[in-house]
Input
Amino acid sequence: MKLTKTDEKEFSKYLAHNMVTNIVRTALTALIGLMLVPFFIDELGRGVYGILPLATSITTYVVVISDELTKAFSRSLIIALHDEDKNEANKVYTTTVLGLGKVVLMLFPVIVLISYISPSIFQIGLSSAAGVQLLFIMVLSSALLLSFSSCFNGIYMAFNRMYILYTARIAHILLQAALILVLFFVNGASLEMVGLAHIVSGIVFFVMVWITSRRLCPSLKIERPNYDRAILKEISSLGLWIITSKLGLLMFIQASLVVVNVLLGTEEEEGFAVVANLISMTNTTCMTITTVIAPFLYRSYAENNMDNVIKIAKASMRFIGLFIAFPIAYLCIFSSQILTAWVGGEFSYLSEIIVVMFIIQLAVCTVGILDTIPILLLKMKKIAFLTLTVGVANIIFAIIAVEVIGMGTMGVAAAWALSMFILNVLLYPLAIAKMTQSGRAVYLMPMIPGHIAFVICLVLWWASTYFFTLPATWMAILGLFFPAFVLYLVAAMALGLKREDKDMMRRVMPGRIARLIPRWML
Output
């Protein structure tokens, strides 16, 4: 397949496929996540459930090396495929698979060790030591396998066929949830059954990705002579800084969860884990948009069109900010009802924590699209330094808030919010503006429309509480949310986006969809 000679419409025609499958994947992830939290609490008990989000958090630390190296490899593979350089593409592909395979093999003893000592490190409440160890070894092994499968992601992105990968993700999510239900029914509820569901579904996902990537680009082959140490060294240099940056990011919500567990115990951690899940769902929702946009950033960069990279990034920031402002405002005002409907009234005390954390979460979501730019420009060193520094500060702030000030879980939440504000509002936009040789405010200005919309929604929903009380049922919560969200989106897109943003979005849309949307709206 040829890429550089493909016109914009040809490259863009899979946008709808990518967007729809990614939305379905995100919705399923959120829906199943929402359903599994109360299910696990009921089946396993509050004390035992707290281990599950902890295991997931530890997983992100273990696979950070393989996950982030994949981004560096994908960059080189995508550019080689866009340049139609078959030899270079095969060198990068072979080096990626074999190099990442070595990393995975090196990490496996680490996950065995972590799994073995996990009952001694963490507060495990009523969980058995053996159950915790088996949960960790299976969840971590599954995550490592999923991380290794990411070495094929560059193929889907280069051809803008991300919908194939998203479809495999959908199958993985459904299979994992189905296995949990079946295993609980057959063998009884236990941490071991959760781990088994993770490892089996992970293996199936890997096989699907391997087969579909081979079919999409059969010219790519793993051949030992194509293994290039020079390419590995060059890519690993970028990967090292991406890994460092990711380690810094892991010092935020994941580290906050660990701080709560170690300093405040499993029951407090269980409550904080609920909020952490909401943060994760919000991030995943925004990634639905950013991952669909990423191929266009890579394509523009491969064509040496940096001006277009900046335009796409700014338009995306405005769109994401406007899109996510309404749900965050709705969650802040009606958090008590949402928590009661989701996990029970006993968790409604988390409402204030949600407000503190989600006010800054809007900025976190808005700047997410900028993560790709330092990777494209091979300028991750400064970003890694900033992220790591603020990440360490977050942990220090959290410990001081708990141990010195005595603020408990609220202190950890406030420390996280302060740290994310420093990183995403004060540092990231300015650093990336300097990288792209743009004005200081170039990535700050696109954040304004979303925050204005957020304040308006917050005020309107707050005022509405004086006239009616929203029942704490899903029918009422969703019945009000969706119609109001649709009306909001129409107004927000019409008033909040610039004409150039709308024209850019219409150009990459399938013609049939673009014709259905009035020009005054988009």
Remarks:
- The chain is about 80% helix and 0% strand.
- The CA atoms of residues 28 and 170 lie 7 Å apart.
